[in-house]
Amino acid sequence: MSQDFRHIHFIGICGTAMGAVAAAMREQGYIVTGSDASVYPPMSTFLESKGIKLSEGYKPENLPANADLIVVGNAISRGNPEIEAVLNRKLYYLSLPETLKQFFLRGKHNLVVTGTHGKTTTTSLLTWILKSAGLNPAYMIGGIAKNLGQGASLHDARHVVLEGDEYDTAFFDKRSKFLHYLPELVIVNNIEFDHADIFDNLDAIKLSFRRLLNIVPESGMVLINGDDKNCIDVAENCRAQLVEVGFSANASRHIKDVAYDAHGSAFTLLDTRFTIQMVGEYNVRNAAMAISAAHFYGIPLSAIAKAVAAFEGVKRRQEVRGEVRGMTVIDDFGHHPTAIRETLRGLRHQYPSRRLWAIFEPRSNTTRRAVFQHELPAALGEADGVILAQVARMDQLAADNRLDPAKVVADIAATGRPAFYEPDVTAIIARLKPLVKERDVIVILSNGGFGGIHERLLKEL
Q1: What is the CATH number of domain 107-310?
Q2: Which positions fall inside the Mur ligase C-terminal domain (predicted)?
Q3: For residue 2, what pLDDT is reported?
Q4: 175-185: b or e for each residue (b if 16 or more CB lie within 10 Å)?
Q5: Which of 16, 154, 274, 335 could form a disulfide with 364 if both were Cys (CB 3.0 to 4.6 A apart)?
Q6: Number of C-beta neighbours around residue 87 at 10 A
Q7: Residue with the larger pLDDT of the pair 336 and 303
Q8: How many Å apart are CA 79 and CA 83, to the nearest integer?
Q9: Model's pTM, two decimal places?
């Protein structure tokens, strides 16, 4: 099918995944153009270095007269002038996941990593193991692994490792993205309620995962969290080979003899001892999934163990950003209560005798809402002190549907821990400065830039 196309235009080209696919298609010899609301480095310079012409702003005239295919980004919605012109002119268009399927995934060994938490770390580690074993996989990851140096490489390869997101595909296709990825192997790390802007409840999310497992071939493999009842439930009628990975004794692939220290974690799986440079139960689970997947493709356990030990982690996952006056500032992408809780517990192992501060920005489409009003205090309460920022884009949500940070703070303070609600980064730093002392650990929890708070803390504390 791809041989019929010559000129491909991307609407929303500067998104991380869109940009990576656009660059890969340019390298395959296609003429590629694109547009976005904002065009700025580093993505703009990266794309321009590939010979891709960019247009800033969405306008009908951006559409090339001879474009054979329009790729529509997930952030594009009806009313966008460019997509309205595509529809009016009846041009051929695809979503990004459909484009991946048509141009990159057919006939390949596709390994799809899914779940509410741990997708990026597990996908990165699995990619690194395959790469270390000489398989040279293509990959698409929603973050940057330190060992890989980039989030995507869609070169021609037999194996493709994909971070599989349950979020919807496009404004015209509300199915989960991962349903387009032609999986041969699927990892399901865990399943919880998330993405409250598109899913009504947990059952709706579980339905999406059931549909995914229903398209794994009988010759393929499904690895699920054997300690998660939601994972066990969605895999009930799976026709592919199924392996439960977990800490419980009844898990067919049992994780045992776990030990933590300030430098990482160690555990036994498949009668082999593994060490990782990451701390905490969730990171052990992530590693066990990646190890099990690599084992399915015949990589020797000794080679897997060597690669796992050398894995340096992922940017924005418990990443140390710097130290100031003996205090350590850490960046973490955590925004779901479970992810926050496990991140803080992991940091407890890593910094056992130090005071831990959590600074949280309610920014995701779920944590901006009141969905986790009662869960967040317990999760953030794993820290010794907490500061909450104002809900991002709060004007877009009705008050009765919006998280109440002041109430979260009050619930934490009622347990005896210092907790504060401050409206912006300047106020947060002013509040924190007289409270912190040498050897404190400050973790910033946000799925966004959080107003450059990391750099400001390192300069102003």
Answers
A1: 3.40.1190.10
A2: 316-448
A3: 47
A4: bbbbbbbbbbb
A5: 335
A6: 12
A7: 303
A8: 7
A9: 0.82
